[in-house]
Each structure stands twice: as structure tokens, then as C-alpha cells.
Amino acid sequence: MSSDGEYILETRDLTKEFKGFVAVDRVRLEIRRGTIHALIGPNGAGKTTCFNLLTHFLEPTRGQIIYDGRDITAAGPAEIARMGLVRSFQISAVFPHLSVIENVRIALQRKRGASFDFWRSERVLNELNARARELIAAVGLSEFEHTVAVELPYGRKRALEIATTLAMDPVLMLLDEPTAGMGHEDVDRVTQLIRTVAKGRTVLMVEHNMSVVAGISDTITVLQRGAVLAEGSYAEVSKNPQVIEAYMGTAHG
Prior knowledge:
Rossmann fold, 2 domains, 9 helices, alpha/beta, 4-stranded antiparallel sheet, 6-stranded mixed sheet
């Protein structure tokens, strides 16, 4: 497959077994370039395990992962991130006692291949500051630039995590439960932010909030007991009787 193919990420018969328990069962995913693709399903459906396989925090028992035309099944987490497949809220966990701008600057340094640039010239640091401020503005945190991360409201902390992920220059962003534990106002803000940052890149997200999924997803894959139960638009999967029985009924009822 050429790198300009329709799908930026594909899995073929992706399987993960833990001592005889099949957590992910022959999952076939096809993530179209430039779309927002949601992975949903009841607790224990295998969503997080799937994410851990894609970023190689877990090794698959069987199957293949193809990213941008390359087989990355055996690639390590750091190599995968350097290719542009970046998982938010893991690789880009924030430093709680550093300011917003310091957090984003460290993420930018990581992208440049240096862990810390404290000894670098002021010119280099100023270049980082300019880019850091662009990213901070993009996620609506300009007024919080010098706020220590631990003091940010919960939703704003999530916005900072997205900014540090963007600093890694992702082609495909994996968002793990981006609105978990948020009130309505924060959910709306982060949903809008995901829609904004998705322009020009691809987003794959695990999300429980059905109104978020319905509002921004182009395609939804429903997992149940580690296997794909259904796939399609929200209109399609929400009418699927098996999905209603397994998941939607409890989400809306």
C-alpha cells in the first residue's frame, strides 16, 4: 500500500490474549485520513487494550498494524511516536509543577530530539517560546501561559495535554477518553478543541460520552468483548439492534 492510500492506519486480525483470555479478538480497523474515528463500547470491550497495541505499550499476540503504508507491528513506542502516531495523555503527560509554557516547551524539545535544552542558547529557547505560544493559543490557554499545571481547572489541564501532544507534530492523534470526568462546559470546550485540532490531521479516540461521539465523529467502531460489533456513521450504528442491546440502550436509557 502506498503512503498516499485512503487509510492512514489499518489493523489486520489484531489479537491480544492474556493467559487464555482474549481481550482483543481479530480486530480489523481502517482509519481514513483526515477523519475523526471513534472507538466505543461497554466497559471491558477492549478499547484501551486496542490503543495499547497500536502504540506498542502491549505486544499483539497475532495480527498486523499498518501505519502510513508501513508495517509497524514490531516498532517500539518511541519510534511510533516519531513517525507521527502520538497518543495523548500518555506520551504527553504534563509536569504538574511546571507552567503551561514550560510544559509545551519541553514537548517541543522532545520533538527536536533533545530531552531538555536548559543549556541551549537564548535564541533557541526564544524560537521554542514563539512556537509554544502558538500552540497555547490554539488550545485557548493564552491567559494561563504562566499558570502552574497543577493549578489549572480540569478541562484546561486536558487542553494543555492536547497542546503538548500537538507539540509532537502528530499526523494521527490517539485521544484516550478526552472528556472523562468533565462537566458540561468543559466537555463542550474540549469537544470544540478536538474538532479544531483535527483539521489537517487524523484523530482516533476512545470516548464514553455519546453526545461527543455523535457530534464530531465521521466513523464509529463499536467493540464488544474484544471484537468489532458494528461500524459506520453515528446514524448507522445507533440504529443497529445489536449495538442498542449491547451499548446504546444503557448509554441513553
